[in-house]
Automatic annotation (TrEMBL):
Subcellular locations according to the entry: Cell membrane
Regions crossing the membrane: 16-38, 75-102, 114-136, 156-178, 261-279
Protein's membrane topology: Multi-pass membrane protein
InterPro entries, sorted: BP-dep_ABC_trans_perm, MetI-like, MetI-like_sf
Biological processes, Gene Ontology terms: transmembrane transport
Domain called ABC transmembrane type-1: residue spans: 76-279
Protein name, as recorded: ABC transporter
Principal localisation: membrane
Keywords, sorted A to Z: Cell membrane, Membrane, Transmembrane, Transmembrane helix, Transport
Source organism of the structure: Micromonospora deserti
Family (UniProt): Belongs to the binding-protein-dependent transport system permease family.
Lineage of source species: Bacteria, Bacillati, Actinomycetota, Actinomycetes, Micromonosporales
Length: 294
């Protein structure tokens, strides 16, 4: 009895410590976000007092100034366009590629897998300059046809670069998940006369929804939060939200207009929190219901 009581006390202590740690981590994330949200609703005069005082009212003019005057609305649309295109590109290539690598034997498959694994260790931030120089050379070769250029300062090209650099990770994760699905489902669909494409889209892809959701989440965060590649490949007015936020920070610090600055931060943060919450919920639901039952 003493041993059981001791084990029970240790178990309760462990759970209590886990709850304390989880609550501490949640507060460490929630408090700064809430503080920025409240600061974005303050007028300029309110920043000269205590930073923990609640705003006297909802001064939404900061958001209007950030969207219109600071052009954060335009930058927001550019970021949405680049992120959505990047996700479409990477899924269109990675899903069928991962399925073929996982399910079919073909000459050179081992070499392809090694190359994809090697791509996992390449940090795109280290090769952004060679990518930029390559795109500049391509623009020079097309100067007679497109004098204004095509590859530089093009959101579509930026989305393509995002997708190309994230393909190794996406294929690696999807391949591992496709291999974990029993082949009985494919065999049953084939007996019913389904083609390989139909099997992939109607049988395997719905079962791989947890893995697809995971890569969508990780790639979305990578594309949305990128700064270096967007700064390099979009040097003109069509900036992404992260680059536009840097310009806003520089301008508003000099003008001591912190309300507009924090409004710009909220514009960057809120879409990430919303997408993360939605995708995480679907990921958990998919993993809970996506197990193979015997």
């Amino acid at each position: 009895m003493t041993t059981l009581r001791t084990v029970g006390n240790r178990s309760r202590t462990g759970r209590a410590l886990t709850y304390v740690l989880v609550i501490a981590i949640a507060l460490a994330i929630a408090v700064p976000v809430a503080w920025v949200l409240l600061a974005s609703l303050k007028q300029k005069s309110e920043f000269y007092g205590s930073p923990w005082v609640l705003p006297r009212g909802l001064y939404v003019q900061n958001y209007v100034d950030a969207f219109v005057t600071a052009r954060m609305g335009q930058y927001f649309l550019t970021s949405v366009l680049v992120t959505v295109l990047g996700l479409v590109f990477v899924l269109a290539v990675s899903v069928p590629a991962a399925y073929v690598i996982a399910r079919y034997e073909f000459r050179g498959r081992g070499l392809v897998e090694v190359a994809l694994l090697a791509g996992l260790f390449v940090n795109v931030n280290y090769i952004v300059v060679p990518i930029f120089l390559m795109l500049v050379d391509w623009d020079r070769s097309l100067v007679d046809v497109l004098p204004g250029g095509f590859f530089i300062d093009n959101p579509g090209v930026l989305a393509l670069v995002y997708a190309a650099t994230s393909i190794p990770f996406t294929i690696y994760l999807l391949t591992a998940f496709f291999r974990s699905i029993p082949a009985d489902y494919e065999e049953a669909a084939a007996l019913d006369g389904a083609s390989r494409l139909r099997i992939m889209t109607s049988v395997m892809l719905p079962m791989a929804r947890p893995a697809v959701t995971t890569v969508v989440l990780f790639n979305f965060l990578a594309y949305w939060n990128d700064f270096i590649i967007a700064l390099t490949l979009l040097p003109g007015d069509g900036k992404t939200l992260q680059v536009g936020l840097l310009n806003l920070m520089t301008a508003q610090k000099a003008a001591a207009d912190y309300g507009r600055l924090y409004a710009g931060m909220v514009i960057v943060i809120v879409p990430v929190l919303i997408v993360y919450a939605l995708i995480q919920r679907r990921l958990i639901e998919g993993m809970a219901s996506g197990g193979v039952k015997g």
